[in-house]
Amino acid sequence: MTYEANGKQYGLTAAGGHGSFLTKLGDSVIAYPLPDKH
């Protein structure tokens, strides 16, 4: 998923672990800036 704020585009990732991999379950959403278009 992406969104735009103040003219800047951001990507979103839902990160939460997985029971089959024995990783901790969570409810995080991580946003990161995407490179500017040239």
UniProtKB/TrEMBL annotation:
Its EC number is 1.1.5.2. It comes from the Bacteria. It is an enzyme of class 1 (oxidoreductase). Keywords: Oxidoreductase. One of its GO terms (molecular function) is quinoprotein glucose dehydrogenase activity. This is Quinoprotein glucose dehydrogenase. The lineage of its organism: Bacteria, Pseudomonadati, Pseudomonadota, Betaproteobacteria, Burkholderiales. The gene is gcd.
